[in-house]
Amino acid sequence: MFKKIVVGTDGSDTATEAVRQAAALASAVGAELAIVSAYEPVSRQRLRQERLEAPEEIQWAINPREDVEATLTEAAELARQAGVECDTFPRQGDAADALLDVAEELAADLVVVGNKGMTGAKRFLLGSVPNRVSHHAPCSVLIIRTT
User: Fold this and answer.
1) pLDDT digits (tens, 9 = 90+) for 56-85
2) pLDDT tens for each residue of 42-58
3) Where in the chain are the domains?
4) Which residues partner with 87 through β-bridges?
5) Euclidean distance between CA atoms 2 and 139, whole angstroms
């Protein structure tokens, strides 16, 4: 059935439910799980300012991927709670492109996405990420309805 499942998250409630269901499915069928989150680059000026304002002992942790790493860590913990080990993939750029790229790279059998809640202005378009993924994925797509 499914051997490799890719799921996208941006930390939203919808995406978190997609991760939960993807992890449950991976656990049930013994599939590998890959969790993907896209991010936009942070300017060097903003990073420099945040480092100056942060306590010295945590300045090293401030980086362009800081937020996405936290999102992926939380999602990976959900997967582990379901008994599934997973790999995480922070990708710079568009969410749909990130999911499609990882699905292709891993030769995934299934991509799982939530039906809304993706980041940026795209969240207002009904399922722009799920819509693009469903039309361009190299495999089957499961859209988790949460509304």
Assistant:
1) 555 444 444 557 888 999 999 999 999 999
2) 656 665 666 566 665 55
3) 4-144
4) 34
5) 10
